[in-house]
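Much of what follows relies on a compact textual record of a protein's fold. An example makes this concrete, so a full record is given next.
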Amino acid sequence: MVNCRYLLGVVLVIFSLAAVFASDETTATLNLGDKAPSFSAKDADGNTWNSADHVGKNFLVVYFYPAAMTGGCTKQACSYRDDLSQLRQAGAEIVGISGDDVENLKAFRQMEHLNFTLLSDKDGSIAKTFGVPLKEGGSIKRTVDGQERDFNRGVTASRWTFIIDKNGKIAYVNSKVDAPSDSKAVLAALNEMKK
């Protein structure tokens, strides 16, 4: 009986240690005042977009969303589209990031007439640097220009929004984003920061 308990204890310790060391998905969440990580990714046109070229000029709103062409993500993107003029007046540039590939982002931008930058983070490396939780990628079917098409993504990021201030610091973090009203919440936060 003692040997069984001992063996069970050893097995539990081994599995616990294996889980800790195997979990490379877990990263520390960024907090207010932390220096924002630099990142680069392909945009919807396949061009490389570098955060270093944008940080310090305006507030940079970085929002992570699970998947292009899905209900909540479309509502969120369209709210940013519709509020873009006010967001720019508040001194912000908007960047949406998902695990979708470039072709998905291009179709998403065209179908929804999106007027801001969308970036592809297929491997989740940008989300990880911001501490955004990730799940496995996925696939959905959508009709584009009369043809059914598969939209694949490498990872599925949780819905989180950040504002990077002009000093390159995290000025706002929302890990409980309400997709349709995200742009309004960001606009309110930006207006508070400007006071």
About this structure: The chain has five helices and nine strands. Residues 2-22 form the longest helix (21 residues). The domain at 32-193 is CATH 3.40.30.10 (Glutaredoxin).
